[in-house]
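Just wondering, does anyone understand these tokens?
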Amino acid sequence: MPEQISADTLMSPGRIAALLATYRDGLLSSTLPFWFPRCIDEMHGGFMFARDRDGSLLDTDKAIWVQGRASWLLATLYSEVEPRPEWLQWSRHGIDFLRRHGFDTDGRMFFLVTRDGQPLRKRRYIFSESFAIAALAAYGRAARDPGAIQEAYELYDRVLGYLNTPGVLPPKWNPDVRPMKGLAVPMIMIVTAQILREAMDDPAFCNHWIDHYIAEIRRDFMHPELETVLETVGPNGEFLDHIDGRTLNPGHAIEAAWFIMREARYRGNDPALLQTGLTILDWMWVRGWDQEYGGITYFVDVKGLPVQEYWHDMKFWWPQNEAIIATLMAYRLTRDEKYARWHQRIHDWAYARFPDPEYGEWFGYLHRDGRLSSRMKGNTYKGPFHIPRMELVCWKLLEEMKAG
């Protein structure tokens, strides 16, 4: 039995109850009502997420990966919160649009399409596919639709082929001069396999690839001599002492940390996996936390040198979301009050600045000192995903903690 949490700790029963209400009510009464049903496109299918502060429409183009993210969210809420028919119906609405308009003739997916589904942009990445897999798996689980689950499995297997067949995905850098790879691929493949596993009867396929990609992160991206997780490395994990090789994305690595912690929990609190997740969180909190103004900074240089990206010191919404989840999960699994302190710090900082008390949901972009940079609520990159996922995951963690 875990030790009882005394009332004078950072995670007192009163604090737990207040946080639980914040995440639950934020999800159900602020985040979801901002997006749905106003963003549903009844004419052409899918969702229109480019929104101003008050929810008014800014653009009708549709990012394929955000369509998948929203469809995943709605189906997951149906399975894990309440079987509301509209959530399942809206999830299917998004998936139908993906099936009709998301795929090119070569089987790969587009990144951005017009309102009626005409292709505008196709990228070399596999993120559109990853979130389509998540959507199909979550919908198949919720609707008990084995056909959707099979689609998700086949698409994950197809993505593995893309990643493991040289030349299928155009490289970002000339591989003959400076071969490179990024943390984003193993990270997204881990969480996508975790979502797919929830829908499949046999976990062996997903477990194999989760093990594979966690091993890659440990071997190639975690660098104990630097106490950091590198965002970009050589093909065998080499440190590349150039701007791109030195640039860290703390929020991204912290997101990977809680994916690995969640895997540790799935496997009976596996101590080695848990330690990997905690180590990543420890290293990247130190790298990412802004000691002067608070919040998680977007980019930092591993050597403390200037960063090339001009938004490097801004405070985007999603790194704060990932740090809120990771610190709370770390505390839930370890009862180490260090993580309770970190969670209180990031939660209080973010909730004092990002949520919009007038129109609901969160702003996405702040300057380093916390001033609002843009009132935009939705675009090609921001939609109903990081915030509601944070609210859902933290709500459920706190329910467990409240129950003792």
